[in-house]
Amino acid sequence: MQDNGTTNKKLKSLKTLIIGEPRNPFDTDIFHKVSLIALFAWVGLGSDAMSSASYGPEEAYLALGDNIYLAIFVALSIILTIFVISTSYSQIIELFPTGGGGYLVASKLLSPSLGMLSGCALLIDYVLTIAISISSGVDAMLSFLPASWQVFKLGFAFFVIMTIIVLNLRGIKESVLFLIPIFALFIIAHVTLILYALYFHAANVPTVMSNTATNVHTIVSGAGLSALLFIILHSYSMGAGTYTGIEAVSNAVPVMREPRVKTAKRTMHLMAISLAFMAAGLMLTYIFYHVSPESGKTLNAILFENITSSWGPLGHYFVIATLVSEAGLLFVAAQTGFLDGPRVLANMALDRWVPTRFATLSDRLVTQNGILIMGISALIVVFLTQGSVKLLIVLYSIAVFITFILSQAGMVRHWWKVKTKVKDWKKKLIINGTGLFMTIMILMSVIAVKFSEGGWVTLLIIGAFAGVVILIRRHYDNTSELIKELNAKAINSAEGMNMIKNDVPDKANMQDKTAVLLVNGFNGLGMQALSTIFKLFGGMYKNFVFIQIGVIDAGVFKGVEEIKELQTEICKDVDEYVKLISSHGYYAEGFTAVGTDVVEEITKLAPEILKKFPNAVFFGGQIVFPNDSRLTRWLHNYTVFASQRKLYADGIPFVVLPIKV
Where is it mainly found (predicted)? Predict the structure, then answer.
């Protein structure tokens, strides 16, 4: 017993050292402490979009082949697309002020099933965000190191992913603060190089425009207007990775500093402006310097070397610093997957599409299970693809645009339905309608071009994941029906509990046998457990104590009011049990607590209860499913068994009462 206690203390100390001290959800400033101002949100969420400038414009430019001057049209299209999508997502932020990512938007504005599909695509997108960002960052780091270092690619990628996992387990703000210097270096270095290139080549603009007109005339006269449009559209769709990350802000509104909507919209504006400047600026400078691909180097590396070729040794070091910042930002971009992926998982868990454990919070008030599953999934993807950025980009673009389309379609439907209630509905409809058209065109183009190159894998994974999710939801629905039947049978059957009617005692005797029952709401499960105590032990127990723990999960941890409502609700439930038992002449008390871990809160209450009722025995009702399996054990937390193990280790008797449904 002592050895176990010592071991547990050591493990707890190690956890505190790595993850940090537990946070108090009742701290009046806690929501202020864990929230992000627009600047920090731009770093934590905008890094995904900004990092796409490291590969999106390059893919679009390379798709043009020898028709490099058509990059001007592609750059203009990219700018337009960025602002259309960001503006349409700003409208989503206004409509969903507590957070409205692709999952919630599609679920509420289209249907739960389409919301589930959007959620599945979004989760895969965030896993791929982590995988592609880390893989690209490692490639950038290794590009200026000896070739022999390539053998360490996977090991380095794994190390970076695990480091970011630990940072996120510590908390959202901690993970973002750590990344600010990297983000700042990237912005300063890239903006400096792009502005320098544009300034010193401003005199070449007339020549570039003339060459562009000649390029257009040559294609149209030779192959026709349709050929010109096809080349531009193909290049435009190949740069689809540029727009990934724009939706991240609408997903993460709950972590924004109050006023959340204003902060989120400001973050969206910062992201759109910076991304448009970066993507279009790179495309134009590619033209000015006639950048062409070289083996073992990215286009950005080649471009930056050309820009700084006249700078001497300073130029060489500046390029290295820029590429290091680019690699660093790609690592930072993985943070979007860790910020928003667990949040989507939590929302789907609250709706019972995925195991409910993904909605629980750790003592650091983060969705620990979601962070771990996102990180582990990314590790698996990096291993299976061997960190191939080319393959990951194909998988990446398709997933995110499925979510884009469903979100825009939901908004279009919403504005049409409320057209008689909203004054400027036409303007809003046009914005989301344009976004819907653009995203459909891009997705169709990407699937058509990349399907045989691996695009089918993404569609297969999304379909398979959706199939698993449907099975999980079906199980929870069946369980819900069984519990409803249990409630119907037990909730109104107090007379059938075989209670021995006692006279109301003048004074309770705390030395009498006391039954301490864990409950989770005034429901059939609690009533059935209470009935079983009387059936098994008759009138042995004279005192009854009811414990209920309110769980602060992702659905509750939105504000102070939600936590207060939870406290009121659990107190009301426990009072119902106390009134029922008291009416039969038994002494009864209720104990309640609110926290992120039920077992931990029960462990805290147990000594207090035993001090007052020394002859107490703890009880907990556990549902026994008709077809128990590993799946049912995985989908349910089995808190009663965990509580029994914990109290047993402390020498406290605990009886599990099987409740068959």
Answer: membrane
The whole-angstrom separation of Cα 497 and Cα 68 is 83
Q: 58-114 pLDDT, tens per residue?
A: 888 888 888 889 989 999 988 988 888 888 888 888 888 876 678 888 999 999 999
CA 650 vs. chain centroid, Å, equals 37
**Run of H or E residues at 517:** strand 514-519
CB 499 within 8 A of CB 584: yes
Contacts of residue 144, defined as CB under 8 A and 6 or more positions apart, other chains included, come to 301, 320, 323
Which domains are assigned to the chain?
31-459 (1.20.1740.10), 494-660 (3.40.50.620)
Contact 365, 557 (CB under 8 A): yes
Q: What is the pLDDT of residues 186-197, one digit of tens each?
A: 888 888 889 998
3-state secondary structure of 514: strand
Q: How far apart are CA 497 and CA 613, in angstroms?
A: 24
Q: Report yes or no: 592 and 567 within 8 Å, Cβ to Cβ.
A: yes
Q: Rounded to an integer, what distance in angstroms lies between the CA atom of residue 44 and that of residue 179?
A: 8
Q: What share of the chain is helix, strand, coil (3-state, %, to 5)?
A: 70, 5, 20
Structure tokens given for 598: 């039920």
**Strand partners of residue 516:** 545, 618
Q: Degrees (nearest 5) of the Cα angle 82, 252, 332? A: 70
Q: What is the DSSP string of 281-345?
A: HHHHHHHHTT----TT--HHHHHHHHHTTTSTHHHHHHHHHHHHHHHHHHHHHHHHHHHHHHHHH
pLDDT digits (tens, 9 = 90+) for 342-358: 888 888 888 889 888 88
Give me the helix-helix angle, 598-612 and 639-649, nearest 10°.
50
Angstrom distance (rounded) from CA 320 to CA 308: 11
Helix (H) or strand (E) holding 504: none
Write the DSSP symbol of residue 19.
Answer: H
Sheet (strand 514-519) strand order: 587-595, 543-551, 514-519, 616-624, 654-660
Query: Do 187 and 46 form a contact (C-beta atoms < 8 A)?
Result: no
Beta carbons of 341 and 368 less than 8 angstroms apart: no
pLDDT of 287-334, one tens digit each?
Answer: 998 888 877 677 888 888 888 888 888 888 888 888 788 777 777 778
**Residue 98 structure tokens:** 């507590």
Contact 532, 655 (CB under 8 A): no
Torsion on CA atoms 5, 11, 17, 21, rounded to nearest 10: -60
Cβ density class 520-536: b for 16+ within 10 Å, e for less: bebbbbbbbbbbbbbee
